[in-house]
Amino acid sequence: MKSFKTLFFFLSTIVAVTVASTSHNVEFTSQVVEIHCLRLQTGAAGYRVPQLDCLSWRLAVETNNLQNWKLVPSACENYIGHYILGKQYRHDCEAVANAAIEYAKSVKLGGDGKDVWVFDIDETTLSNLPYYARSDVAFGAIPYNNTKFNAWVAEGKAPAIPSILGVYKTVLSLGIKTVFITGTRESFRKVRITNLKKAGYTNWAKLILKGENDTRSAVEYKSSKRRELVKAGYRIIGNIGDQWSDLIGDNLGARTFKVPDPLYYIG
C-alpha cells in the first residue's frame, strides 16, 4: 500500500526536470511538465469484465476473422441486443455512410449513364430488426427459421436504415444509378418493391433477386451478377453491404463499404 501511495504521489506531482550541459558548463531548467494520474482501463490488471468477450466476438465478426458461424453466442444475446438497439449501432452505420458519401462526391463520373452503385437489401438498405428483436429470434441467438423469416419478409414492413438511405439519395443526386442485388428469392419481388418504395427507395436501374432454384453461395451468386453488370458496360463506382459475401469475389467495384451486422452470417 505504501509503494502504491508513493507511485500515485509521483504520477500526480508537477515535475521540474533539470538538465546539465557538461560540454558548456551551463545549467538550465526545462518548462514545468505536469504528469497526470493514470486510470486503469476496463479489463486491465487481469480483471474479467462482463461482456468484454462479446465485444471481441463482434469485432471478429466485423473484420471477417470469424467465419461460417451459425449463432450469436447465447452469452452475448443481451450484449448484441443492447448494441443493435442502442446508439452505438446507429453511430457505426452513420460512420460508414459518411465515408461512402464523401467518396461518392469525390468520384469523377463518365457522363454516359453507366456509373452505378450496388446496394444489398437486408441489414443494408432495409432493417429486419423488428424481426430479430422478437423473443423467438433473440437477436440471432436462436437457430434461424426460414419459414418464420420469410413470413416476416412477406409482411413488407422492414424500415429503412436512415444513414444508408442517405447514401442512396446522395448517389442518385450525383447522377449515379443504383442497383440492388439481394439474396431474397424471386418470388418476393412484388413485396420487396413495395417495401423498398415505402421505406424511401423509389428509383433504381436494376433490382436483382435470386432465382428460386439457384443453389450458388452468396459470393458466387453476387459475383456473377456484378460480372453481368460490367459486361453490359456498367462501371461499379461503389458497393455497400452488411455481409462480407457482398464485398468479396469478382467485380467488387471501385470501393466497398461494410455495414455492421452481428446478427447472422451468410457465406
Order of helices and strands: HEEEEHHHEHHHEHEHEE
Low-confidence stretches are 1-48
Question: What is the C-alpha radius of gyration, as a whole number of Å?
Answer: 26 Å
The neighbouring-strand order within the major sheet is: 7-6-5-8-9
**What is the number of E strands?**
9
Q: Please state the overall shape, judged from the principal axes of the Cα atoms.
A: globular
Please give the largest β-sheet: 5 strands, parallel
The CATH class of one domain turns out to be Alpha Beta
Let me know the CATH homologous superfamily of one domain: HAD superfamily/HAD-like
In round numbers, the mean pLDDT is 86
CATH fold annotation of one domain: Rossmann fold
What distance lies between the first and last C-alpha atoms, to the nearest angstrom?
A: 54 Å
Pfam families: Acid_phosphat_B
GO molecular function: acid phosphatase activity
Protein name: Acid phosphatase 1-like
Organism: Nicotiana tabacum
